[in-house]
TrEMBL record:
Keywords: Membrane, Transmembrane, Transmembrane helix, Transport. The keyword Transmembrane applies. It comes from the Bacteria. Its main location: membrane. GO terms for cellular component: plasma membrane. This is NCS2 family permease. One of its GO terms (molecular function) is guanine transmembrane transporter activity. It comes from Budvicia aquatica. PANTHER family: GUANINE_HYPOXANTHINE PERMEASE GHXQ, XANTHINE/URACIL PERMEASE C887.17-RELATED. It is a multi-pass membrane protein.
Length: 455
């Protein structure tokens, strides 16, 4: 009897220590609620392990190794967020920055994969310095909110263009006139992708856990049945960061090449996007979970931003795209997640997927296209955040957004947004609203283009 009592007392002590570390009771939660919240977040964002390898694979990255790297980044980043920052936020390779990495840096500008990984690494270093010092606060005080929101809108449009062109829904116009036209609607990839998008919207409206993943899996099964190009190559294998041809992306980054003048504007775009994306996402999730202090600041917000940025450094080392806190974390907080235990559960679940890399090559592009389109559409909601009471600021944001997609280049959109803001302020007599920081950033960006250093 005494032995049983001792065991119960030991178990209660361990549970109490666990509770105290994560402040579970203090935040009005319990272990079961935190575990279920972690499972909910995982199901909401697990689609990334097939979308990210698919996107980077189109740019020449080995799909199987990217799958493993994506799981490692999500696993390690989420665990660090949970254990160190004690926040219910999951980290993963950002879909928008993954698209920028593949289609702008590699395919668009022609940089080699090692140089691009070096750019991801440098971006992570800069973002970490920004997060760990007062620079981030300075940037957020001085960067116009219109351009910040406009960048999000533009990336959303960029994702839509990438997804639709990838399945042949938007194609190059062979005739004179506009450069693009609608593709063959009767083709299997186009019809199944748009149907999948509609299903995702319906499932998300119903708040079905893992709705995006269910659509990706469903379309992949249909592809396996009806598309001869989709073949089954197995279910599980030992995780490896070495491709079948012997090449490895781990520690293959070219930092010297990433510091060339032609690459620096893109690193700037990655940093700026990460600063606003991370801050906005973390604040939104923290607000929903009521994890703001009496001054309206995010509890452990500095640790959260640092974890987010260090995850990008890790991404560059293992051969993946930049990392970020996923907005899908809000699904977990809506399910009751209030502590880092939620993120810890997410991280462990992602690490458990390391042995399923053959599944990545089973997923065709038209299966992940609906997810890309859906994420792009969600990012267009930034339009509602534009303050049209400040007309010049709002219009500059829209200019930034539109020219990101028209040029296929985030930096170009940001440059035009800044330039139009400065000129617009001066011409409207609102020059007093300008500060020296905005003017200097505008001059620097324009100089990159006038000097021919930007691509």
């Amino acid at each position: 009897m005494s032995s049983i009592d001792d065991q119960k007392g030991k178990s209660a002590g361990q549970s109490g220590g666990f509770d105290r570390y994560f402040k579970i009771s203090e935040r009005g939660s319990n272990v079961r609620q935190e575990v279920l919240a972690g499972l909910t977040t995982f199901l909401a964002m697990v689609y990334s392990i097939v979308v990210v390898p698919n996107i980077l694979g189109q740019a020449g990255f080995p799909v199987e190794t990217v799958f493993v790297a994506t799981c490692l980044v999500a696993g390690a980043g989420s665990i660090a967020m949970g254990v160190w920052a004690n926040l219910p936020m999951a980290v993963g390779c950002a879909i928008s920055l993954t698209a920028f990495t593949a289609f702008s840096l590699v395919l668009g500008q022609g940089h080699s994969i090692p140089v691009v990984l070096g750019a991801v690494f440098v971006m992570g270093i800069l973002f970490t310095l920004i997060s760990a010092t007062g620079i981030r606060a300075w940037i957020l005080r001085n960067i116009p909110m219109g351009i910040a929101h406009g960048t999000g809108i533009g990336i959303g449009l960029f994702l839509l263009l990438i997804a639709t062109s990838g399945i042949g829904a938007v194609i190059k116009n062979p005739m004179d006139g506009l450069p693009v036209q609608f593709g063959d609607f009767k083709s299997f990839p186009v019809m199944i992708a748009f149907a999948g998008l509609a299903v995702i919207i319906g499932l998300e409206k119903l708040k079905v856990p893992g709705g995006i993943l269910l659509v990706i899996v469903g379309i992949s099964v249909l592809g396996l049945i009806f598309d001869p190009n989709v073949t089954y190559k197995g279910l599980a294998s030992m995780p490896t960061l070495v491709a079948a041809d012997g090449t490895s992306l781990i520690f293959s980054l070219d930092i010297k090449g990433a510091l060339q003048m032609t690459v620096l504007p893109s690193i700037l775009a990655l940093v700026m996007t990460a600063v606003f994306d991370a801050t906005g996402t973390i604040r939104a999730v923290a607000g929903q979970a009521n994890l703001l202090d009496k001054d309206g600041q995010i509890i452990n917000g500095g640790r959260a931003l640092t974890t987010d940025s260090v995850s990008s450094i890790f991404s560059g080392l293992v051969g993946a795209s930049p990392a970020a806190v996923y907005i899908e974390s809000a699904a977990g907080t809506a399910a009751g997640g209030r502590t880092g235990l939620t993120a810890l559960v997410v991280g462990v679940l992602f690490l458990s997927l390391l042995f399923l890399s053959p599944l990545a090559s089973l997923v065709p592009g038209y299966a992940t296209a609906p997810a890309l389109m859906y994420v792009g559409l969600l990012m267009l909601s930034n339009v509602s955040r534009l303050d049209f009471g400040d007309f010049v600021d709002a219009m500059s944001g829209l200019i930034c957004a539109v020219f990101i997609v028209l040029t296929g280049n985030i930096v170009t959109g940001i440059m035009l947004g800044f330039a139009s803001l400065v000129i617009g302020r001066i011409c409207s007599g609102e020059w007093r609203k300008l500060n020296i920081s905005v003017v200097l950033i505008s001059i620097a960006l324009v100089a990159f283009y006038v000097g021919g250093w930007a691509i």
